[in-house]
Amino acid sequence: MNEQKLKTIFAEALDTAENMIQDDLAYNSIEQWDSIAHMTLIAAIDEGFDIMMDTDDVIDLSSYAKAKEILGKYGVAF
């Protein structure tokens, strides 16, 4: 359930198809994931999972797989 929710958030924030969202999807690996989209993505993840990522995690969030790892620190299970 959380996996699907995160995929949807990524797809909407990055304006791309959900089937493009895989563990190896990384920052700047697709044209849509630039610095502006990154902040949109962070805001959407924070809102979607009712958390507030700290600055280190925002900077550290460099891939879809890393997003799942970071969310785990906030009690979100995958």
From TrEMBL:
Gene3D superfamilies linked to this entry: ACP-like
Stored Pfam families: PP-binding (PF00550)
Domain Carrier: 4-64
Cross-referenced SUPFAM superfamilies: ACP-like (SSF47336)
Record-given protein name: Acyl carrier protein
The species this protein was found in: Paenibacillus oryzisoli
